[in-house]
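Suppose a colleague, Dr. K., hands you the sequence of a protein chain of 216 amino acids and asks what its three-dimensional shape might be. Before reaching for any lab equipment, you can write down a predicted structure in token form. Begin with the sequence itself:
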Amino acid sequence: MTRHHPDSLSLMEYSAGNLSEPHALCIRLHLDECPQCRSRVDTLDSLGAVMMEQQPKVTVSDSIFDAILSKIDSAPSEADLPSMAASAAAKLGPLQKLLGEDINKLPWKRQLGDVSVLDISDRFPGQREQVVLQKLAAGGKAPAHTHRGEETTIVLQGAFADQKGVFNQWDFVVLTDQDEHKPVAVGCEDCITLSVLSAPVKLTGTFTRMLNPFIR
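The predicted structure, expressed as tokens, is then:
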């Protein structure tokens, strides 16, 4: 069961389609496994639909209307849906739609100590944020650090703990430059997270802080 959720403003922005693609991905992954937040977004979507109905009517040209009908006609039929759903279900792992393979088999790069990373920012062309997968070895510790900007993270596998508590699979957390933590992977498997960063982290350990000029 997820215990850490996106805040109301983030869910509203998601429902309105105002989030960047990486941030929307983090929330979408959380929603897939969290009935509570999914219900809240469904309510927001319904409210948005009611508000749209109250907007002044806009005249649509015949050419645009025909184009819309054409797209509807080309949409998958109901008979196609079972096979499509089966194909999607066969893909294991929360990021396979994006990465195409199991997250444990990705070309991870060792960063510091027990931490390995994979920068996937190039999968989101035109986005300013840095998007990274991070793997903390089972029982391992990440270096103490804070943030130069905002970091949005969702736990994809395993769990980690810091001074704020324990974050399990599908838990959602947002950290700012006011937060300093030293995550520890708990449990018997590696902890893998997906993070969206507006700026690089800042190491705060006695020795690791000397590496800050090399962090991008």
